[in-house]
Amino acid sequence: MCCCHPCRALFETDSPRWRTAGFQKSSPTLDLKGSGVLALKAMLYMAKTYPDKTQAMLLKNTANVKTNYPFAVVGINMTILLCDILGIREKRCDYLTC
What we know:
Helices cover about 50% and strands about 0% of the residues. The protein is mainly α.
């Protein structure tokens, strides 16, 4: 969160600020369940490497509800898609397939 909100406290596990970064809940754990830490690391890399562009995307996202896309959810889904394409995603066993 420090790269998305540089002027605020560094980290809180449960905070409404996660929603401003595009997570669906005030805690990112459920959103990250499908991708694990990889998606979070990818978003952190983007925020550290391209802080101005990341900030602009987040500001644009919150300013325009009409074209609203949840930044974090899109980042997570893109990470999952790339892992599937590259064949590096772990196959998880759920109760329907085991």
